[in-house]
Write a structure and sequence with these properties.
The protein is an all-alpha fold. The chain has a single domain, classed as Up-down Bundle (Rhomboid-like fold). It has eight helices and no strands. The radius of gyration is 23 Å and the shape is elongated. The termini are far apart.
Length: 190
C-alpha cells in the first residue's frame, strides 16, 4: 500500500539468498508484496489458516507460527535462486502443511476433519511448491520451504497441544486388574 501511494519499491527488503543484504528479508519479506492481488491472496489465506491454527492448536500456535515464519525465510536464504523473494506465501504454505498433516498424526477426529478441509481447499497449492515451469514469476522456493517447515513442525509437535481423547473402551483397559482374581485364588480352603 505504501509502495503504491509513495511510488517506491521495498522489494530490496526481501530475501536475497546467501547475501548479507538479504538476511533482513527473513523478517521483512512476508510484509512486502508485489501488487494488490498478491497481497489479497496471501491476506485471505493467512487469515483463514491463522484463525484455524490459533483456534484448534491454541497452546502451540504461537510457537508454530513463529517457527514457520522464520524457517520458511531461512530456507529461502539458504537455498533459492538468486533473486529477491517477497511475500507471505511461505507462511501460507507452512500453515497449510501443518494443518493438513497434524490432525492426521494426532488421530483426533475433529483435527482430522480440519486436515481434510485444509487439503480440500488448499490441496492444489502443492503444485506451487515445485518448479514445474522455467522462469516462474513467483518464489516456488518460498512455497517449498514454508510447506516443508509446516510438515516438519506437525511431526515435531505431534505430542504437544490437543490430543485424541481416550475412548471409554480404552479407559476400561487402563483400570487396574486384580492380580489374583477370586476364581484363581488357590488359598481358599474347601
Amino acid at each position: 500500500m505504501i509502495e503504491t501511494l509513495e511510488n517506491v519499491s521495498f522489494s530490496d527488503f526481501g530475501v536475497r539468498p546467501q547475501a548479507k543484504e538479504g538476511l533482513w528479508g527473513i523478517l521483512l519479506s512476508p510484509l512486502i508484496h508485489g501488487d494488490w492481488d498478491h497481497l489479497y491472496s496471501n491476506a485471505v489465506s493467512l487469515f483463514v489458516l491463522g484463525i484455524t491454527l490459533f483456534y484448534f492448536y491454541n497452546k502451540i500456535a504461537h510457537k508454530v507460527f513463529v517457527l514457520i515464519y522464520l524457517l520458511s525465510g531461512i530456507g529461502v536464504w539458504l537455498a533459492a535462486r538468486d533473486s529477491w523473494h517477497i511475500g507471505a506465501s511461505g507462511i501460507v504454505y507452512g500453515l497449510t502443511g501443518f494443518l493438513a498433516v497434524s490432525g492426521i498424526l494426532r488421530k483426533h477426529i475433529r483435527l482430522i476433519a480440519i486436515s481434510f478441509l485444509v487439503i480440500f481447499f488448499y490441496g492444489s497449492l502443492v503444485w506451487g511448491a515445485f518448479p514445474l515451469k522455467v522462469n516462474l514469476p513467483y518464489s516456488w522456493e518460498g512455497h517449498f520451504w514454508g510447506g516443508l517447515a509446516g510438515v516438519l513442525l506437525a511431526f515435531f509437535y505431534k505430542n504437544e497441544g490437543p490430543q485424541r481423547p481416550k475412548s471409554p473402551i480404552e479407559d476400561e483397559d487402563d483400570e487396574e486388574i486384580d492380580e489374583d482374581p477370586y476364581w484363581m485364588n488357590t488359598n481358599i480352603e474347601p
